[in-house]
Amino acid sequence: MTELLQEAEKGKYAVGAFNCNNMEIVQAIVAAAEEESAPVIIQASQGAIKYAGLEYIVGLVRVAAAGSKVPIALHIDHGTSFEQVMRCIREGFTSVMIDGSKLPLEENIALTNRVLDVARAVGVSVEAELGKIGGTEDDVSVSEREASLTDPEEAKIFVEKTGVDALAIAIGTAHGQYKGEPKLDFDRLEKVRQLVDVPIVLHGSSGVPSEAIAKAIKIGVSKVNIDTNLREAFVNRTREVLAANPNEIDPRKILGPAREAMKEVIKEKIRLFGSSQKA
Ligand code: G3H
Ligand code: 13P
Ligand code: ZN
Ligand code: NA
Q: What ipTM goes with this model?
């Protein structure tokens, strides 16, 4: 992942990181990346691993990557325990996120360094998180919002004390569907960009207007995480197919169109991120 993000930084584009939970999603991500000739990151959350099983996720992505012409990184999304992250490395993940964002700064640094010690030895990339990227269900006041956003000075300290490969920051995005339009703190992003020299990651990017995504990439984001938009494409197309064909009993006639819908969304994102034709 580090190589993909360093290229992206140089080329001033971002690599899409898409969450997978099953075979159709993996196939949609890889087909989209190939049609766009784009490098891509496939990521699995702890929830995805619980649902599909660690070996299934790795097996699916291994098969997809082996037959693919584009570079693919397999990344654990929001790994929260040292043990979980180690299991993923052993099974073949090429990249991990250790999310110590709920911890006090020094503990987050210590946990990240513990993961880095092992990851460095085996050539696996590490993403960390500083600041709290909430969910859209969280009702936050202005002062709570300020407290949850990444402090640029802390980001500088964090990167100096860890040398992490990529840093996820909180600038006003949230996981899930937004109720209104998200307000991104671009000044904060610029300050972080000036103070740290590692690739910056934007989480909760589904539902962020395209112009805001483009602006964030222009300022210096090089990995953009998308999950919710894939869920929407999958489920909306499934509903449409079932509504039009209430007697359909062949899962392939339902999941095939859902996979196609996800692929189209991913291709649009890849073009928006500027990673098309960068493989
Ligand atoms: O970061 C959140 C992603 O959308 C993954 O969500 O934990 O429900 O798989 P999940
Ligand atoms: P969205 O579901 O809001 O796109 O967030 C995805 C994400 O940040 C995964 O880590
Ligand atoms: Zn996230
Ligand atoms: Na979102």
A: 0.98
